[in-house]
Amino acid sequence: MRLRREHRILWRLYGYSARLLKTKLFRTAASNTSFPEVWLLLVQYFERLPGFFWVVQRNSFFTMPEILENKADLELYSPHPEVRGMTTLDRAAFKRTIVVPVLKVKKEVINKLLKSLKHITLHRPGLKRVIDDPKDEDRLVLLDPHKISAEYSLGESEQEILKQFNIDPQVSKYNLELTYDNFKTEEILRAVLPVGQDVTSGFTRIGHIAHLNLRDHQLPYKHLIGQVIIDKNPGITCSVNKINIIDNTYRNFQMEVLAGEANMITKTRENNITYEFDFSKVYWNSRLSTEHGRIIELLKPGDVLFDVFAGVGPFAIPAAKKKCSVFANDLNPESYKWLLHNCKLNKVDKNIKNFNMDGRDFLLGPVKEELTKELPLLTKERKNTLHIVMNLPALAIKFLDVFKHLLDGKPCSTDLLPTVHCYSFSKHDSPAKDVQEWAEVFLGTSLEGRCSTHLVRSVAPNKEMMCISFQIPAEVLFKKQCTHEGKLKSSAGNFRVFQLYTLSQIILEKKKTAFDGFKTRILSAMGLIRVSFSGVIPIC
Ligand SMILES: C[S@@+](CC[C@H](N)C(=O)[O-])C[C@H]1O[C@@H](n2cnc3c(N)ncnc32)[C@H](O)[C@@H]1O
């Protein structure tokens, strides 16, 4: 009775202080006084006022500083408070004793009983749910304090189960020692980093390497975080942190080894294909696996794929596995080296021709040569499709002008024209429209109704990676006589010969839709247009 009364008083006090804290100190709505929410506020506040924390510790909940008894206590599974601020990992310091409910059970029935009580047993990393009772031959089943009532009594359905097994439903308390091994990554980092700071432990995995992207406030703890990631993720033996954004030519990360062996040569699998490479010297992004798969899905055996910025082969190798004929290129000698290696590793070196040159030279050389050879061979019967993949999102779109009048001879029929899949970043409100406009600028023609755009992924809150796919219009790809020639007089009195070509339509469209000054300047710099008093004059 006395205990219940104390409990009620404490609960009232808690509710009152919760509202007080939220409204007076944190200026948030008083209505939400849920335990987790308020607990976090209290912890924050006590950190600021250590004296007050001490009083609360002594007079109310915490009779034994290391033992937490409150069922609803969010901090129940938190490591020893002394680890706060630790920068060099000391695993032993995380040890903590907590009180958990246990059921005493005869060893003969333990397996059957565990199945029925699975929903209330204690689940912690590296912890056995059943332990020997030191007093006799029986076993003790550890129960989850969050799933048992404050009075340590079991629910009706659980009591019914115990009755069937002839087990006493009496729940007792047990002092359980939790060690570093029994805490989850997030619990460890939340205990170490300053209160209230984000403890993101997310990483991408590339074989044995965990690739982190730590924020500034996490940097003082970087080596500890790196080691915890290794400890808690079987198979990971090295953790690295991205140092800066990728802005170098070869798009590889500048990285720092945080913990573990500094071996950057790794092996990973994507869409059932194995890749090996030196992660510090080439580009690899596990987040692109769906996109790689999407493009490969479009290909049929016998199709031709030109991969202009191939990296270590995540488009090229699966395409070759699918019996496509592949031409892969990368400017980075390291990427090229691993591309060759991965072709051998996946036994597709017969289907791939690899190149180590600038993308523009690749398009003007091997691609042009192959298109010239292949296109006349394509007929209604032999209808293999040709695809050109250009995954260098920061720059690829600027390479599209290479297709302008690339091929001599008579244009092939529309359905045989090669399909380009060109990637681009966009920070625009309508990224699809933005990317299409840029592609039109560099191709010098309108793609309206002749392209599709696909959102690959959001790179940052206001930055999308897009893929625009289109068949290169015949009037772009093939050298062609002008359809019309004319003379236009500017209001300055100058005459200029220009071709009445689709480019003029784009310019007019873009003028209508408030074509922004920047793009006009770029066009102008490229010699595609001349801005005069009479407006924008296209120059073909
Ligand atoms: C974003 S990565 C894409 C790699 C691979 N296709 C993928 O999807 O993972 C771009 C690649 O283009 C290569 N690269 C950069 N500039 C290049 C250029 N001018 N010509 C050819 N390759 C280039 C880089 O070395 C890098 O491997």
Which terms summarize this structure?
binds S-adenosylmethionine; 15 helices; 540 residues; four-stranded antiparallel β-sheet; disordered N terminus; elongated; disordered C terminus; 22% strand; alpha/beta; 31% helix; S-adenosyl-L-methionine; transferase
Major beta sheet, specifics?
7 strands, mixed
Return the average pLDDT rounded to an integer.
80
- List the total number of helices: 15
> pLDDT under 50 segments (min length 5)?
1-73, 483-502, 508-516, 530-540
What ligands are attached or bound here? S-adenosylmethionine
Tell the overall outline.
elongated
Describe this protein's structure.
The chain is of the alpha/beta class. It contains 15 helices and 21 strands. The strands form 6 sheets. A 7-stranded mixed beta sheet has the order 13-12-11-14-15-17-16, sandwiched between helices. It has a 4-stranded antiparallel beta sheet with strand order 2-3-1-4, with no helix packed on it. It has a 4-stranded mixed beta sheet with strand order 5-6-7-8. A hairpin with a 2-residue loop joins β5 and β6. The site of S-adenosylmethionine has 20 residues, from loops. S-adenosylmethionine (SAM) binds next to loops.
Give a summary of the structure in a few sentences.
The protein has 540 residues and is an alpha/beta fold. It contains 15 helices and 21 strands. The longest helix is centred in the first third of the chain and has 24 residues, at 2-25.
Write the layout of secondary structure elements.
Elements: H1 2-25, H2 35-48, H3 50-59, E1 96-105, H4 110-116, E2 130-132, E3 139-142, H5 156-164, E4 171-178, H6 185-192, E5 204-206, E6 209-212, H7 222-232, E7 238-242, E8 255-260, E9 265-270, E10 273-278, H8 289-298, E11 304-307, H9 316-321, E12 325-329, H10 333-345, E13 352-355, H11 359-374, E14 386-390, E15 419-426, H12 431-443, E16 451-460, E17 463-471, H13 474-477, E18 485-489, E19 495-499, H14 502-512, H15 517-525, E20 529-532, E21 535-538
Parallel strand pairs: 6-7, 11-12, 11-14, 12-13, 14-15
Antiparallel strand pairs: 1-3, 1-4, 2-3, 5-6, 7-8, 9-10, 15-17, 16-17, 18-19, 20-21
The structure holds S-adenosylmethionine (SAM).
The site of S-adenosylmethionine (SAM) has 20 residues, from loops.
